[in-house]
Every structure is written in structure tokens, then in C-alpha cells.
Design brief:
Helices cover 11% and strands 37% of the residues. It binds heme C (HEC). This is Cytochrome c-like protein.
């Protein structure tokens, strides 16, 4: 498989002029200077988090990476460490003021864009098991297409679950802070994870082992795998790039800087696979463009679709002829025809739709997409032929994830935000009415439903450090089983994900 290796040299760091001045201006007037914070940091923290804060044995300490962590928590962690991890507490060695200085320091953006180009990416690559060194037969007796990976965020692990017996086959450590859904190879043997800190890990499901890893960025959003399983594309916030990897050995093939024609640089919001088009689609945060990168041609040509607004968070119609994206400035969603490279419609969605978790089905003979909204207590149902909203289903609060299955009469949506975040709604796909509201664990957030291969079970997460996986009979809606887990977040069924079931996001 000769692959044209073309790694454009990545020009070092667009140095924002005056960034240092801005840093000083943003500094709280405590009488201490950032130099002092940097000095303490170099003495006590650099050995694990690296001198440039890009991470080493410990995670990167940058505002982009610390988004999950609030300042008071960061302060607590620095003072008292984190139990059962290598992060020590510093309350004996550092004063409260010094700890506060460090907190401010790690939330300051870097003055220059970190360089993470060909050499840095290549040097990070680790191969744990070379080609041919592991068995081609699964080491377990279960349907390999009805397995789930469940990501557990509290202690950075993942569980491999048998979707028939509803039992955990193994639980293994992941990189720190996974982000974006893991992606399966088309045959389901491998699963690829991306972490917020930029690590891409390839896990051999049959042998239950991590086989190779590479750090493709400093702050990463997600990864996509080509329909033929040959390539991975990684989208980064830091640096502003997409990185194309060989899915086989994780070797970098291309690093493409995210810039428009005028040179304006952009964070990459997300990358997607459009399998019928044999391409990747790239969502850009800071420029009004959508990119399509073809993996059918050896030189991976890049096509820019120039738009009149910034588009984020995409849903694709079943043929991948159109995408719906959430527009940033306008109060709506926009439809882009990918064949023609044109915006063709606007949809009046004001509640910040979470289109990436949209699902589709046939309603009264028409294809529709249903999406939760992050700001409004509504599930919006949109006609995929004329882009009109045919129903707004009132919910108990804004939702995050929505799921169904091709063989299920129901669609599930969580109530992720607000006082009713412990509730989930079950919607009848024929009537568009809520037929049941469940509260699996009162007072604790219930989220992210996924079906098994056959549509028999619906699995949801109790989103808590001491949480659980709750499994429902998908027809009777009765609870079947509860498995304790450490802040389970997403769960990913091999069959539904690789066969692109319309009831799940892709
Ligand atoms: C011996 C290695 C080591 C040293 C020294 C160290 N850290 Fe850490 N730090 C870690 C590890 C490992 C973690 C991840 C812990 C976990 O798994 O939650 C961590 C986590 C953190 C976190 C939480 C990050 C997140 O995203 O949740 C912060 C904040 C932090 N460290 C700050 C500091 C600061 C500031 C210093 C210096 C005063 C320091 N650390 C020194 C190893 C270290």
C-alpha cells in the first residue's frame, strides 16, 4: 500500500504580537509577577507537566486542557494532590498565595502557538505490540459485533462489555481525559481513542491490549476513521491543525495547518467521516469554511467550502449530500449542500441544537432528523426534504444526547442541564410524543443512551464518580441490570457504529 507521504513543513508559531503584554494585563494585581509563578512552576511542577506546560507524565496545564476543571478544584488539587494518582499535594511546601499564583499561571494561554509538527508527532509514537505479534482470534467467547466500549471518565479507564450477557469482559486504563467518541475499524477488531491532551491510542479488542499510541496534538477535539479503515484524521485546537495518520501503524502521513486563504488561523472544532463520499469533513471554529479532504486519492486533496458564517457541530443526511451545522452568530442552523458547496437553507433553531447527536428515522413517509438543544428544553424534529421544523417536543430541560435504533419504536433523550438532569425521556417515533419519563437514580445526572446491536437493550449512564451503567429492556422500558462504574460517559456499540445505524451518531 504505497502511500504518498507529504508532510508540509509547519511554520513555527504565529506569534501574536503583544501577547506578552496581554498576559501581563490579564494578571491579577497581587503584587507578584508571572515570573514568580513561572519560577515556582519550574521548581515544583515542570518535572511532571513539562517546562512548557504541554504535559509529560502529568497532563498538559493549559486553559484549553483545563476546561473540565474549575479554578477552585485546580487549587484543591495543587494543595492536596489527587488520591490514587501520582499528583502530589503541595500544601506543606507552598503558601496559599503561591498556590493561587500557580492556579492563575496555568490558566493563562500560551504566549505563542506551541509547535507540534512532524518531528514532535513522530517522536511521541510508541508501539507496544508490533504487527503480527498478537492473535487474530478473539480471546473471549462473545459476539464481537455486539460489544460495547464504555468510557469511564472519573479514573480514566474504559470497560469492554458483552452486549448479550451484559457483563464486563475487561477494564483497562486509557490516556488522561478522553474526548470525542472512540472509533472502530470496519471489522470491529480495533478501537481508536483520542484524549484531550492529543494522544491517539489504538486498542486491539480481540486481544484486549493497547497496541500503539501517538500524540497528534496538544489539545485535541476528536478523531475520525475513513470508511475503509485505512486512515485516521485528528482535529486539534492546539496547534491549529488536522493530522492524518495511517490507521495501521499510526504513522503521520500529513499535517495540515488550519488556515483560510488569507492566512487566518483557526481551531478545528471536529472532524467527521463521510464514508459514501470517501472523504473527511472538517468543522472549523474561527474561519467561515467547511473542509472536505478526500481519502480516495493518494494526495488527499483538500476542498474548501466558503460560507457566510462559522459552522459547528454537524449532522449529515443519510446520503451525506447535506450537512446541517449550528451557526455561531445567526440564531439558526444552516444546511450546506456538499455536492455543490453551497448553503441551501436556514433552519430556525434558536436553542443551540446539538446536531452531532442528532438521529434520523422515517416519520409519515418522510426522513426526519431529531436533535436535542443545549440551551432550550426542546427536541426539534426537522424534515430532511424541505428543512422545515415539523415538531418541537417540550422536555424538562436542555438535552445533550439522543439515541434510537433502526428496530426500536422509541427514541431516548437525556435532560442534561438544569434541576431535572436525573430524568430521561422516551419518545414514540410514530407520534412524536413523550411516552415515559424515567429517573434511574434521583438526584444524579442520567445521560447518553445507547442501544445494543439488536435493539433489545438501551444502556444509559449515571454520570457520577460513583455512577453506574443502567440497562433497560428497550421494549418494556423495565430495568434489567445495573453495573457500578466510575463516571461512565459514552458507550459505543461495535455493530451500530460500524454499520452506521440511523439511530446513533456517527
Ligand atoms: C510527580 C509528578 C507531578 C508533579 C511534581 C506535579 N504533578 Fe500535577 N499532576 C500529575 C498527574 C499524574 C496528574 C493527573 C492526576 C489524575 O489522574 O487525575 C496531575 C494533575 C494535575 C492537575 C489536574 C489537571 C486536570 O486536568 O485534572 C493540576 C491542576 C496539576 N496537576 C497541577 C500541578 C502543579 C501546579 C504542580 C506543581 C506545583 C504539579 N501539578 C506537580 C503529576 C504531577
Amino acid at each position: 500500500m504505497p502511500v504518498c507521504v507529504r508532510i508540509p513543513s509547519v511554520s513555527p508559531a504565529s506569534t501574536a504580537l503583544g501577547a506578552a503584554a496581554a498576559l501581563l494585563a490579564a494578571w491579577p494585581a497581587t503584587g507578584s509577577s508571572p515570573d514568580e509563578a513561572q519560577r515556582i512552576y519550574q521548581i515544583h511542577c515542570a518535572s511532571c507537566h513539562s517546562g512548557d506546560r504541554l504535559g509529560g507524565m502529568g497532563p498538559a496545564l493549559l486553559p484549553e486542557n483545563l476546561r473540565r476543571v474549575r479554578r477552585p478544584e485546580a487549587r484543591e488539587v495543587i494543595a492536596h494532590g489527587r488520591a490514587a494518582t501520582q499528583m502530589p499535594g503541595f500544601s506543606e511546601q507552598l503558601s496559599d498565595d503561591e498556590i493561587m499564583l500557580l492556579v492563575e499561571y496555568i490558566y493563562q494561554p500560551l504566549e505563542v502557538m506551541p509547535v507540534w509538527a512532524r518531528d514532535e508527532v513522530l517522536d511521541s509514537r510508541v508501539v507496544h505490540y508490533g504487527p503480527g505479534s498478537l492473535s487474530d482470534e478473539p480471546r473471549f467467547d462473545a459476539d464481537p459485533l455486539n460489544l460495547f466500549i464504555v468510557v469511564e471518565l472519573a479514573d480514566h479507564h474504559a470497560s469492554l462489555l458483552d452486549g448479550d450477557r451484559l457483563e464486563v469482559l475487561t477494564r483497562f486504563p486509557t490516556r488522561f481525559a478522553l474526548h470525542g467518541g472512540p472509533k472502530y475499524s470496519p471489522d470491529g477488531r480495533y478501537v481508536y481513542f483520542a484524549s484531550r491532551g492529543g494522544w491517539i491510542s489504538k486498542f486491539d479488542v480481540y486481544n484486549m491490549k493497547t497496541v500503539a499510541e501517538i500524540r497528534a496534538g496538544i489539545n485535541t477535539r476528536n478523531l475520525a476513521i475513513s470508511g475503509d479503515g485505512r486512515y485516521l484524521l485528528v482535529g486539534n485546537y492546539l496547534p491549529h491543525s488536522v493530522v492524518l495518520l495511517d490507521a495501521d501503524d499510526l504513522m503521520p502521513l500529513e499535517i495540515i495547518e488550519a488556515r483560510d486563504a488569507a492566512g487566518t488561523s483557526s481551531r478545528v472544532s471536529a472532524v467527521y467521516t463521510a464514508a459514501p463520499r470517501e472523504s473527511f469533513i472538517v468543522a472549523l471554529k474561527d474561519i467561515a469554511e467547511v473542509w472536505e479532504i478526500s481519502y480516495a486519492a493518494a494526495d488527499f486533496p483538500l476542498r474548501r467550502i466558503v460560507l457566510d458564517d462559522y459552522l459547528d457541530d454537524f449532522f449529515f443526511d443519510p446520503g451525506y449530500h447535506h450537512l446541517i451545522g449550528a451557526a455561531r452568530n445567526a440564531n439558526n442552523a444552516q444546511v450546506v449542500n456538499l455536492d455543490e458547496g453551497l448553503k441551501v437553507a436556514e433552519i430556525d433553531l434558536t436553542g443551540l441544537p446539538h446536531l452531532g447527536s442528532g438521529i434520523s428515522w422515517e416519520y409519515q413517509g418522510r426522513p426526519v432528523v431529531a436533535t436535542p438543544n443545549l440551551r432550550e428544553a426542546e427536541v426539534s424534529v426537522i424534515d430532511l426534504q424541505d428543512w422545515t421544523i415539523i415538531e418541537r417536543i417540550d422536555t424538562l430541560g436542555p438535552g445533550f444526547f439522543m439515541r434510537s435504533h433502526g428496530d426500536s419504536p422509541y427514541a431516548w433523550v437525556d435532560v442534561f442541564f438544569g434541576p431535572d438532569s436525573d430524568a430521561v425521556h422516551v419518545i414514540d417515533k410514530k407520534t412524536l410524543k413523550i411516552v415515559r419519563t424515567l429517573r434511574p437514580e434521583p438526584g444524579k445526572t442520567a445521560a447518553h443512551i445507547e442501544y445494543d446491536r439488536h435493539g433489545r437493550y438501551a444502556l444509559l449512564s449515571i454520570w457520577d464518580d460513583d455512577g453506574a451503567l443502567v440497562i433497560y429492556d428497550a421494549d418494556t422500558l423495565e430495568e434489567v441490570k445495573r453495573i457500578p462504574m466510575k463516571k461512565p460517559s459514552g458507550k459505543y456499540n461495535v455493530y451500530n457504529k460500524t454499520r452506521l445505524d440511523p439511530g446513533t451518531s456517527h
